[in-house]
């Protein structure tokens, strides 16, 4: 009987991350480490997962998401016992574009939590995975990173950095057995987008998005649009002539 998979989720209170964890536990017992900034919220997620998979080991770890030394220390601690099979980097926050335009501190904070922090965690996990010549590193970006738009360009710029970082890691690790997976969800029905739902936006069920991620990663995909229709939608958006694009209120 094979050993349980070792799975680490950074930003485990994310609704997408929580549903990914449920799907992984359905595949079999695992040793799951949930990393969050809020210990109580992360523990609530862990308690639910323990009920769903009593055979699994589920640990909770509170960690800093911005300090490079703390991030490195966290990853060192997790990788010291042995290789990680899956690392999912899922944390982020959806800022109000208008507020970021008025407050540079908010703008900086949004860029740090959505771009710099995921990139640092990815870099920290990449080294041990490369040394072990195994593992799957999953970064959650966004369709917002495919083209800058006036409605959310601060968030989009951050996710654009995640896209480029993931591409660079894929190139770096192409000759290894490490898989780097970039996920680009469309608008998803989570607590982070509750205000959008109130405005009538069409949001994908979080269960469907998580299923796309887990299935795509299992198949070895390098880029996952979730749901898949966003691959075509964003291809069109990326290729719209500027003169047409600039007339659009998106």
From TrEMBL:
<dbReference type="InterPro" id="IPR036291">
    <property type="entry name" value="NAD(P)-bd_dom_sf"/>
</dbReference>
<dbReference type="InterPro" id="IPR002347">
    <property type="entry name" value="SDR_fam"/>
</dbReference>
<keyword id="KW-0560">Oxidoreductase</keyword>
<dbReference type="GO" id="GO:0016491">
    <property type="term" value="F:oxidoreductase activity"/>
</dbReference>
<comment type="similarity">
    <text>Belongs to the short-chain dehydrogenases/reductases (SDR) family.</text>
</comment>
<protein>
    <recommendedName>
        <fullName>Short-subunit dehydrogenase</fullName>
    </recommendedName>
</protein>
<dbReference type="GO" id="GO:0016020">
    <property type="term" value="C:membrane"/>
</dbReference>
<dbReference type="Pfam" id="PF00106">
    <property type="entry name" value="adh_short"/>
</dbReference>
């Amino acid at each position: 009987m094979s050993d349980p998979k070792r799975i680490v989720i950074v930003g485990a209170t994310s609704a997408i991350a929580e549903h990914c964890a449920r799907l992984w536990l359905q595949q079999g017992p695992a040793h799951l480490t949930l990393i969050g900034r809020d210990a109580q919220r992360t523990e609530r997620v862990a308690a639910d997962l323990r009920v769903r998979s009593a055979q699994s080991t589920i640990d909770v770890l509170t960690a800093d998401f911005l300090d490079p030394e703390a991030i490195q220390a966290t990853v060192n601690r997790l990788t010291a016992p042995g290789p990680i099979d899956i690392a999912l980097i899922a944390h982020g926050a959806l800022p109000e574009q208008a507020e970021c335009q008025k407050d540079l501190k908010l703008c900086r904070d949004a860029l740090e939590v959505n771009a710099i922090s995921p990139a640092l965690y990815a870099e920290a996990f990449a080294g041990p995975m490369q040394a072990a010549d195994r593992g799957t590193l999953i970064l959650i970006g966004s369709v917002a990173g495919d083209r800058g738009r006036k409605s959310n360009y601060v968030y989009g710029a951050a996710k654009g950095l995640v896209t480029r970082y993931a591409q660079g890691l894929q190139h770096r690790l192409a000759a290894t057995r490490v898989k780097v997976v970039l996920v680009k969800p469309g608008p998803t029905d989570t607590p982070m987008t509750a205000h959008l739902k109130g405005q009538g936006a069409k949001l994908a069920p979080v269960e469907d998005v998580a299923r796309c991620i887990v299935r795509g990663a299992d198949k070895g995909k390098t880029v996952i649009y979730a749901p898949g229709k966003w691959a075509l939608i964003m291809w069109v958006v990326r290729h719209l002539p500027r003169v047409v694009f600039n007339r659009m209120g998106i």
